[in-house]
Amino acid sequence: MSRIAGKVAIVTGATAGIGAACVRSLAEAGARLVPTGRRGDRLQALADEVAGNGGQAHPYVLDVRDRIGVAAFAEWLEGEGLAADILVNNAGLARGLDPVHEGKHDDWDEMIDTNVKGVLNMMRALLPGMVARDSGHVVNVGSIAGYMAYPKGNVYCATKFAVRGLTEGANIDLVNTKVRMSSVDPGLVETEFSLVRFRGNAARAGRTYEGVDSLQPEDVADAVRYVLEAPPRVNVLHMVVMPTVQRSPFVMGNRGS
Ligand SMILES: NC(=O)c1ccc[n+]([C@@H]2O[C@H](COP(=O)([O-])OP(=O)(O)OC[C@H]3O[C@@H](n4cnc5c(N)ncnc54)[C@H](OP(=O)(O)O)[C@@H]3O)[C@@H](O)[C@H]2O)c1
């Protein structure tokens, strides 16, 4: 029997990639899902798929940058009897790959507002209920970019350093509660991430994954599920997961080998 069966799990950024894979995996474990993201059609399709497989999903259109919208979402959850047991803070993005002295302010704002403030908005809205119930688990999706910056990754990497710092800080703040705080920090995962980074340039995005046996979104969802399934006495603070071919942000095995 899964330890998360019947639990309410909120997943941000559930319209694609890792977030969608988390929704499928946690639903399979019997959790009651609340997939969120900005593209409502995709959320609905995912919720229908989950329901078709005998699971439960309540889609909710949400931009994690919208602090007021996030607060309204938290109220909606309470009103629907969907008090959050699990929050997977996954929504995130990179924009561009410029040296910092040529970076674009709008790209910086979008990354910082989504990856850092978005995570904070969600934690601020949902953690009070978890603390009051003395129960809950937050999993932030960080990155190996949060341990070591890579060339031209400057601001994106800084946002993921911030996610690691927020995970560690919140973890300390939650001492003397049963609320757990974790991060899952992946290396290269084949998703729409590069397509977003290069603003729809599929050829450029495709080169990121060419000849590399990258992680698939399901591999990261497996890690998230492992962290959530751990017994209540166990808190995985950080779990770093990379493709076998990738040994650090700088050490990638030969492509195609
Ligand atoms: N792919 C990788 O190699 C990799 C490696 C390490 C870490 N990560 C991290 O993994 C997480 C998921 O990325 P992914 O690789 O699965 O990329 P993806 O396929 O592009 O998915 C990103 C998701 O984030 C959502 N999102 C973006 N901005 C949002 C906003 N303002 N409000 C709500 N949702 C928003 C998108 O949904 P909407 O556009 O519909 O809102 C989408 O569902 C990110 O935090 C990323 O930094 C990725």
CATH architecture label name: 3-Layer(aba) Sandwich
Total strand segments? 10
CATH class: Alpha Beta
- Low confidence ranges: none
Overall average residue pLDDT: 97
Name the bound molecules. Answer: NADP nicotinamide-adenine-dinucleotide phosphate
Would you write up a description of this structure?
With 257 residues, the protein is α/β, with parallel strands linked by helices. The chain has a single domain (8-252), classed as Rossmann fold. It is 44% helix and 16% strand. It has eight helices and ten strands. The strands form two sheets. Strands 1, 2, 3, 4, 5, 6, 7 and 8 form an eight-stranded parallel sheet that branches. A two-stranded antiparallel sheet has the order 9-10. Helix 1 packs across helix 8, helix 3 (67-79) packs parallel to helix 4 and helix 4 packs parallel to helix 5 (154-173). Bound molecules: NADP nicotinamide-adenine-dinucleotide phosphate. Residues 12-19, 37-39, 63-65, 90-93, 114, 118, 141, 143, 186, 188-189, 191-193, 196, 217 line the site of NADP nicotinamide-adenine-dinucleotide phosphate (NAP).
